[in-house]
Design a protein that fits this description.
alpha+beta; four-stranded antiparallel sheet; two-stranded antiparallel sheet
């Protein structure tokens, strides 16, 4: 279950799965907290106004590039340790040196992502876990593109650490959940202590069993991601199918209105006639019961009289069922159920 509420309890954070992590406050805050809300870029780098050219992208320092490489080199190893990382707030809040960006809004909404944010995003966004036709697995880790046109130039990292540019389909399905998860922990990133990526890796390596092969964990996560994506496709197709069936059903009922109205009216009249006979027979049964209780009729005479009345009721109920089946059978091949017919006629008659 995914928890979308962004309000966080004091000295702790609530993760997307509902788990609560206790956090360790920083000794002091260097500056006031400013929420990382998405807004139009004001630097002139990602939003061009008029004929004025965009400013060149700022260069990243060698240290940032080294931190980025440390993350991509160990992305699959870190993914395999998701459960461990998601149980330690300092690991969860470990900064990741990857700057994602959108046209028009720039880096807003994407500032200072953390290790836990990436792990939650890979868990939520199944299509960010990719397997090519040769069975090679990769993780989308860098997002860059237009939120309007969907044009993008992202990046993925393979299990061997190789990085390749990639154009992802459904760009919005990638950047929207990432931005939502990233901004969810804005204040936590500002207030609470975090490890460095080097510290996280040192801890994980120290805790690992020497015989542990994390490739099986990666395989399982990619299989689960594929299952999740297939479930989403089934849900989308089901909704689409239901929409088209509803349109077809309405059109068919209007086209066959006179015919269906007559058939349903005939059946209704027949059913009402049979129900009246059943009610009359039930009244006779109650009168017989009263005579039996009063002693005016013995049990043998009661049973002798009751049996044909019960048979008469069963016969009438069978006749109603047969007529209903005939009505159902007439339209079922067209994909129209009895409930559909009844609902349509009730609406026509304002019942």
């Amino acid at each position: 279950m995914t928890h979308s509420n962004t309000e966080q309890p004091k000295n702790s954070i609530t993760l997307m799965n509902g788990a609560v992590l206790e956090c360790i406050p920083k000794e002091s805050h260097q500056d006031d907290f400013v929420p990382d809300k998405m807004k139009l870029d004001a630097t002139g780098t990602y939003l061009r106004i008029g004929n004025k050219p965009c400013k060149p992208l700022p260069r990243t320092t060698e240290d940032v590039e080294q931190q980025k490489k440390l993350f991509t080199d160990n992305a699959f190893y870190l993914l395999a340790h998701s459960e461990r990382i998601m149980h330690d707030s300092r690991m969860f809040l470990t900064p990741v040196a990857v700057q994602n960006v959108l046209a028009y809004t720039g880096t807003s909404g994407f500032h200072t992502p953390t290790l836990g944010i990436y792990l939650e995003w890979w868990n939520e966004c199944s299509i960010a876990l990719r397997t090519d036709k040769d069975g090679n697995r990769s993780l989308v880790f860098h997002l860059a593109g237009s939120p309007l046109s969907g044009t993008n130039q992202c990046a993925e990292v393979y299990e061997d650490g190789r990085i390749e540019p990639i154009h992802v389909s459904s760009f919005a399905s990638h950047w929207r959940p990432f931005a939502a998860i990233n901004t969810r922990y804005d204040e936590a990133k500002h207030m609470y202590q975090a490890y460095t990526l080097e510290q996280v890796l040192d801890i994980l390596h120290a805790e690992d069993d020497e015989s542990w092969d994390y490739s099986s964990e990666i395989k399982e996560r990619f299989m689960q991601a594929e299952i999740n994506e297939l479930k989403k496709k089934v849900e989308r197709l089901t909704k689409e199918s239901e929409k088209w069936y509803s349109m077809y059903k309405d059109t068919y009922m209007k086209y066959k209105d006179a015919e269906i109205r007559e058939a349903f009216s005939t059946f209704q009249s027949f059913r009402e006639e049979c129900e009246a006979q059943i009610n009359s027979t039930n009244m006779r049964k109650r009168a017989l019961k009263a005579e039996l209780k009063s002693g005016r009729m013995d049990n043998i005479a009661y049973q002798h009289t009751l049996t044909p009345l019960n048979k008469q009721i069963r016969d009438l109920e069978f006749r109603v069922s047969t007529k209903k089946y005939e009505l159902i059978n007439k339209y079922i091949s067209e994909g129209i159920s009895y409930d559909t017919i009844e609902s349509y006629m009730n609406k026509k008659n304002n019942i």
